[in-house]
Amino acid sequence: MRIDKKQLEIIEQQIQSCTLCVLASTRKTAVPGFGNMNADIMLIGEGPGYHEDEQGLPFVGRSGKLLDDLLYSIDLSRDDVYITNVVKCRPPDNRDPKSDEIESCRTYLDKQINLIDPKVIVTLGRFSMARWFPGVRISDVHGEAKRFGSRIIVPMFHPAAALYNPQNRPLLLKDFGRLPKYIDSLNLEQQGDQESKSTVEQLNLL
Ligand code: SF4
Question: Is the pTM of this model over 0.90?
Fold first, then answer.
């Protein structure tokens, strides 16, 4: 279903003027998200950092460059996906977002997910992962898909984790490499292909 761009713009405007949590008082620019409104894949990170706060865009700087490389590895660009975070405003000094801040901001993430309705959600880092995979370690489950209704959620390391720890980079590349298969399976399932339906059902690995 094609969505009305206006609806997404209204959510972005609400975010820009939001004061629901304390992060409003220290942000320079809120970062609602960026990308294709009709994307099959939505990527959800943690929160804006310094550069994102300056530019109002998600995943700029070194993590963003790595994310671009990861998308390129599966023949996609950030214009093909939608990228956002669990909190839309930068936590001071790049500290972790707090649970009450994530909860306050959840209403916007919920609206974005409902509107864009991606086939696959990729959680980047433990804060976005926790919503669908509570109580697990990312090192144990990264890259493994889980079915939630008609959607597949895939937890992955945050790109920053591969910058700090280069041994995570090939893991991220491998996990991204699985995404086209997930999309293909869901597309075939929608077309009524029973073999693919069973493939997708087998994706419920966690
Ligand atoms: S982080 Fe979310 S809830 Fe908090 S002020 Fe920013 S937009 Fe509002």
Answer: yes
